[in-house]
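Ticket #4471: structure output looks truncated?

Reporter: J.K.
Steps to reproduce: submitted the chain below (336 residues) through the standard prediction queue, then opened the result file.
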Amino acid sequence: MSENTTKVDSEAAPRGPAPWQQALPWAITIVCFGYLYTRLAGAAAREQVTLFEYLSAIFARVSWTRWLALMIPYSAFFFLIDSLIVWRVVTWFNAPLRYLDILPIRGSSYILSILNEQVGKGAMGIYLNRRYGVPGWEVGSSLVFIMFCEFFYLLSWATVGWTLRAEDLPPVFGVIPWLAAGAAIFLAVWIGIFRGPLGRGLAFRERPLFKSFRESGLARYLTIILLRSPALLAAVVVYKQALGLFGVEASYGQMLGYLPVIFFGAATPGPMRTVAITLWVVLFPGNEGEMTTFGFVQHNFFIFFNAAIGLLFLRRANRELFGASSESGAPTTTES
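Returned output as attached by the reporter:
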């Protein structure tokens, strides 16, 4: 009997990813770093120095105080824009919060986002549920809506970037306009299902998880894309100026073409972030060390400085989260 029970339990247990699925991200990452190492080693050999000396010289040439003067305000500006998106969506679908009420939880969620962006968003969901009594599925609906719009935002700007600089980008990025066309058709059908006659009679349309989509026409999707766009345009200016500090010149037109494509790749789950760092070297040949260093420090500073912003709000977020039921009097049950 115990053998039969064990067999049933093993069959019922969810299966993990196949071995090749687990190995693929590591394989791509190893290939990317192998490519970078080969290019860097070759550049160091041409200058007849060791790889360590080659990279150390690049770090020494950068004015890090001027670099920080660019990156700190940009990161703070991104945080304010990002919080604006969360505030806008939550006030549309969940609760009439003030913008300042969103800052602590959005900032604190960046700490968890170091490990996984979706874990950070999950923490925001728990906060809104406990602090304001928003049913759990409705919170989830709002967060899914944000991620849904973020994909279209990144793809829209990546399409602009590809249109401007297609001749400079690796051929693989020629898929971007096809993705954009497919995404536009998908969005039209999606809105037709949740707001039009296409979804009439479909039971899943009425589920709480899809609340935000039932209440959103095209204008709301476009609003989120437009509200996010100043952050990308600011990045074009900041990255162009920061690149100059590494001794590499680029025009604003080049950066407007390259940066959205790199951001789109970096936002893709898994090893694409490594690919995005590698792309800097491909786009600026002859500056292997400068571009590797630039891509590495830009990406990692942004992640860890955002987490530092979160530390400023962490105490308040914890106080409001764990003292929510006694202070607000709002129900804290989660809709199932």
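Triage note (M.O.): checked the attachment and the full token line is present. Residues 270 and 322 are 33 Å apart (CA to CA).
Status: closed, working as intended.
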